[in-house]
Design brief:
alpha/beta; single chain; six-stranded mixed beta sheet; about 475 residues; 16 helices; binds NADP nicotinamide-adenine-dinucleotide phosphate; globular; binds magnesium ion; 22 strands
């Protein structure tokens, strides 16, 4: 049983209501969480405001940075504990959970060091004037996060906001919020003032909606589905508050006929299989030039057929997906594609001995998928890869840009000119040339266009998102 973390203390909240959280690997109750409501959110926002106006807000940038870096070291001290907690809560294989905690620690390292490097600038202006442009925190920022990478998302969304000097209120996903709660407690142990970091658990339509509509929030950071993202943005608009939305994608991996096939095949597979396909930046479409389509897909099929899904402890290629609803959703994509007669090129296996109640799906590879099909257009959020042939460069770009999403893309070719042309024309916030980098890259600005959302996370770009730019014009003669 876990509780909210508000104003530096664990609390059952106003109602004391709790809800069950299931372990995806078994389908059995794993723990219970507090079910927060609008009053709990209000308490958390007030605590954050008090911290911003008090102990937290009074710290210098260097002091904030030191605390953030200290928490990163604390994360590493608690590495095994956090990785196991993340694996049990989300069902992900242990190796993935460890990679996630490592990435989580990197956010603290990066933004701990960056906190005192957000310098303003001076603008040369009229004679007799001095102009300073400075970056100030919003005050209190709101954060609503999903269940796929809870610890990494804590790092990605909350840590730059803290580095800029904001106090934060987080509503994590009800399905997986254990590491976020633990990180908030660890923050308190390393000396974060009460109220600097608040975590309210509970249902999205209750606690999440209350947070996104709260007038005390200066800026909102949301990661999740496009449908809820739109609702959050509308709620923010009512308060004239800006937000970043990170809403997933249908990211293409474009393979030209001169690509290094041996290098590309394992990365193309990993880009969809990582975290059981539950990755916003999953490379869920592979576009292959006609001349090498058969050869390339045969190699991908060979790898797919070897994939196994199992428990976190089995530590195989995939875990279960997060819950029964997601399993049903992923399975419906697979069933519909089979019924429509789309060739199933290869499938992996669910490992022997997984618990019956767990939410396992079979990794599945389809191709050639007809253009315009659901598998081209909609995010599955599971280990399902869709392959498409294309004729030439123009056709590849047309196909790559054929969805409403635009988050990440990869281009595989040895032709330097083509690498640049395609990278410039493809609709995506990040483009990888001869590689694919889902997940990591804390230093690299990341975010989408269109249905993938807007705003930039990671790198220095995230610090700018969580700051207000102020221009101070001084007429001194
Ligand atoms: P979701 O409903 O968008 O959940 C994301 C977060 O928003 C959770 O914390 C959720 O709380 C909260 N939320 C739900 N309703 C809300 C509301 N009315 N106001 C404010 N916050 C609200 O996503 P999902 O249902 O977990 O997953 C559905 C699909 O979204 C997936 O199949 C996938 O396609 C996509 N998705 C994308 C990402 C990504 O990284 N971009 C991550 C997860 C899912 P609760 O947990 O309490 O519902
Ligand atoms: Mg939901």
């Amino acid at each position: 049983m876990t509780q909210h973390f508000i104003n530096g203390r664990q609390t059952a909240g106003r109602t004391g209501e709790t809800m069950a959280v299931l372990a995806p690997a078994t389908g059995e109750e794993f723990t219970r969480i507090a079910c927060g409501n609008a009053a709990d959110i209000d308490d958390a926002v007030k605590a954050a405001r008090a911290a911003y106006e008090g102990a937290w807000g009074k710290l210098t940038a260097a002091e904030r940075g030191r605390l953030i870096a200290k928490l990163g070291l604390k994360v590493l001290d608690h590495f095994d504990e956090l990785a196991l907690l993340e694996a049990r809560d989300t069902g992900k294989p242990m190796a993935q959970a460890k990679a996630d905690i490592e990435a989580c620690a990197r956010y603290f390292e990066f933004y701990g060091g960056a906190a005192d490097k957000v310098h303003g600038h001076i603008v040369p202006f009229l004679n007799g004037y001095s102009v300073n442009v400075v970056h100030e925190p919003y005050g209190v920022t709101g954060h609503i996060l999903p269940w796929n990478y809870p610890a990494q998302m804590f790092g990605r969304s909350l840590v730059p906001a803290l580095a800029m000097g904001n106090a934060v209120v987080l509503k994590p996903a009800e399905e997986a919020c254990q590491t976020a709660l633990r990180l908030a407690v660890l923050a308190s142990e390393v000396g974060f003032p009460d109220g600097a970091i608040n975590v309210v658990t509970g249902r999205g339509h209750e606690a999440g909606a209350a947070l996104s509509a709260h007038p005390g929030i200066g800026f909102m950071s949301f990661t999740g589905s496009p449908e809820v993202g739109k609702m959050v943005q509308i709620a923010c608009a009512e308060n004239y508050v800006a937000c970043t939305l990170e809403l997933g994608g249908k990211s293409p991996q474009i393979v030209f006929d001169d690509a290094d096939v041996d290098a590309a095949v394992p990365i193309v597979c990993k880009a969809i299989v990582q975290n059981t396909g539950q990755t916003c930046s999953a490379g869920s479409r592979v576009l292959v030039q006609q001349g090498i389509y058969d050869e390339f897909m045969e190699a991908v099929a060979g790898q797919f057929a070897k994939l196994r899904a199992g428990t976190p402890e089995m530590d195989l290629d995939c875990g279960p997906v997060i819950n029964a609803k997601q399993r049903g959703r992923v399975q419906s994509f697979i069933d519909q594609a089979r019924e429509a007669g789309i060739p199933l090129i290869a499938e992996g296996q669910i490992a022997q001995g997984v618990p019956n109640g767990g939410f396992y799906v079979t990794p599945t590879l389809f191709g050639k998928v007809p253009r315009g099909n659901r598998l081209e257009q909609e995010e599955v959020f599971g280990p399902v890869l869709a392959a498409f042939p294309f004729s030439d460069e123009a056709d590849a770009i047309k196909l790559a840009n054929s969805t409403e999403y635009g988050l990440v893309a990869a281009v595989w070719t040895k032709d330097g000119g083509r690498q640049q042309r395609v990278a410039k024309k493809v609709r995506a916030g990040q483009v990888f040339i001869n590689g694919y980098g889902a997940g990591g890259g804390i230093e690299l600005p990341f975010g989408g266009t269109g249905k993938s959302g807007h705003g930039r996370e990671k790198g220095f770009a995230a610090l700018e998102e969580f700051a207000v730019t102020k221009t101070i014009v001084h007429k001194h003669g």
